[in-house]
Amino acid sequence: MTHVSTGEAVAFWILGSLAVIGALGMVLARNAVHSALWLVVTMLNLGFLYVINQAPFLGFVQIIVYTGAIMMLFLFVLMLVGRDASDSLIETLRGQRVAAILLGAGFAALVATGLARALEGTPTAGLEAANQNGNVQGLASLLFTKYVFAFEVTSALLITAAVGAMILAHIERAKGDRADQVTRMKERFLPGNYPGPKPGPGVYANTMSVAAPARLPDGNGTENSISPILPVRELTASEVAPKGTEK
């Protein structure tokens, strides 16, 4: 049995505990973005565990590829779909939540038991020969010689999945629905459209009533400052006339 140093044991318990906390936060978080960020915490700790166990290539792949690229893709999809979209809490099948929890726990126990029985008393073989020139060099040699076909098929599968996601998310628009900046500018300044911010009640006004139109710099009242739900109050002659011109 390989001797485990005190530093490795301490790092395992610290990083392992943080990874478990991140996994629990991912499952228990109600917000999808928060759940994804908790998963980032778990993946970072797994990457550090790989590096501590003398597997720097797997550790950096875990951090750069999974934590960096794939999790950013997850967050992009969440933002694209809408993070405020919540699933319906109405169960279409009675007891499906309890059944899902029991089946998930049973499946986890089955996988853990199978792995424990398969790895118990099984010594590692072939690691020294594969890592004799270094971990990164050994993995690169295996990937591009013995497992090159599986590696290329996996890369093609990922590219196909990315292209399929782009096609599914693409929305075809007719040419008439596409408006350039010049067209949008002309539509903004059409008669009836107010190009600038609307003046609020009380601006250049002699009253505090929100039902009284605000005055423009030339002294005339503007109905754009009145909310559509409020009736427009009739202005007196002194209120309509510009300041300093009352007779």
UniProtKB/TrEMBL annotation:
Topology with respect to the bilayer: Multi-pass membrane protein
Annotated TM spans: 12-29, 36-52, 58-78, 98-119, 147-169
Catalysis performed (reactions): a quinone + NADH + 5 H(+)(in) = a quinol + NAD(+) + 4 H(+)(out)
Location relative to the cell: Cell membrane
Leading EC class: translocase
Keywords (A to Z) from UniProt: Cell membrane, Membrane, NAD, Quinone, Transmembrane, Transmembrane helix
Pfam family, one: Oxidored_q3
Known EC number: 7.1.1.-
Major localisation: membrane
InterPro entries: NADH_UbQ/plastoQ_OxRdtase_su6, Nuo/plastoQ_OxRdtase_6_NuoJ
Known function: NDH-1 shuttles electrons from NADH, via FMN and iron-sulfur (Fe-S) centers, to quinones in the respiratory chain. Couples the redox reaction to proton translocation (for every two electrons transferred, four hydrogen ions are translocated across the cytoplasmic membrane), and thus conserves the redox energy in a proton gradient.
Family: Belongs to the complex I subunit 6 family.
Protein's UniProt name: NADH-quinone oxidoreductase subunit J
Organism: Actinoplanes ianthinogenes
Gene: nuoJ
